[in-house]
Amino acid sequence: MKEVPLISILITHYNRPTDLVKCIKAIRDANIANCEIVVSDDGSALETIKLIQSYGIDTLILSDINKGLAANINKGLKACKGEYVIYCQEDFMLNPQINNVLFECIELLKSKKFHIVRFTSNFKFNKLIKLTDAISLIPRFSFKNFTQNYYRYSDHPFITKRQFYNEYGYYLENTSGRYGETEYGIRICNSKAKIAITNNSFASIIVGSQSVLINEFDTNEPKIKVNKSFIKLARAFRLYFEWVFYRKNKRGLISYTNARKIKIQ
Q1: Which residues form the Glycosyltransferase 2-like domain (predicted)?
Q2: Residue 38: C-alpha distances to residues 41, 57, 126 (Å)
């Protein structure tokens, strides 16, 4: 039997200890061989820190202040010891059946068939390229995925090599969560990184969990009802605009506002 390399399971966390304990329990229930659990906390309340310290985490990385999701991922990645990293936010649970596909993911990552393999998606890509019975490649661009092409990267659970970030860059810090994720997604669009996805979902969001991103913008502003298809198409053109004019040395988005910088000022 082949030896399984060390896998670091990185969980980013901020003031959601109830979700975190469910996330960790799901990982342990999966019985992933040769893995470490690394939790990177982004300045949670003291009582929350005391609580999660009892969760039996292999490595817990703390922060004196809240620095945002990007900085939290970056410091967590730098604490990972494994050759491979599974990234999972605290509001997700890995499926216990993930072991059925994990070794195949690692073998294909070794062969450089792709650089990241995602375990789930909020929607079904219209066009995928089948690699195996379990895994498909998401095309870099396809007209069938016209409103989806820029969603190849997502911060939903995925596995990659730790060295991926040395080649393609870490996350842009001092940004709000939405801005940081969008910027990194556009960065990946402009790179040669290949991203795949499992044909079956091996991760799911925790029912009842509320995203911390909901507090980034003023939710009291009046909402205008707009046709969903129009919104989807408008968003597509906006992101293609960012894709075309993106410059990786500047790492800034033109049509997006960094909510975190607004709060700091």
Answers
A1: 8-111
A2: 10, 7, 34
Which fold would CATH assign to domain 7-264?
Answer: Spore Coat Polysaccharide Biosynthesis Protein SpsA; Chain A (3.90.550)
Confidence of residue 3 (pLDDT cuts 50, 70, 90): confident
Which residues lie below 8 Å from residue 255, measured CB to CB, with a gap of 6+? 238, 241, 242
Q: CA-CA distances (angstroms) from residue 221 to 217, 218, 224, 262?
A: 9, 6, 10, 17
Give the tens place of pLDDT for each residue, 152-172.
Answer: 999 999 999 999 999 999 999
Give the residue-averaged pLDDT of 103-110: 95
d(CA 105, CA 117): 7
Secondary structure string (H, E, C) spanning the chain = CCCCCCEEEEEEECCCHHHHHHHHHHHHHHCCCCEEEEEEECCCCHHHHHHHCCCCCCEEECCCCCCCHHHHHHHHHHHCCCCEEEEEECCEEECHHHHHHHHHHHHHHHCCCCCEEECCCCCCCCCCEECCCCEEEECCCCHHHCCCHHHCCCCCCEEEECCHHHHHCCCCCCCCHHHHHHHHHHHHHCCCCCEEEECCCCEEECCCCCCHHHHCCCCCCCCCCCCHHHHHHHHHHHHHHHHHHCCCCCCCCCCCCCHHHHHHC
Lookup: tokens for 54 = 């009892």
Contact at 8 Å (CB) between 4 and 103? yes
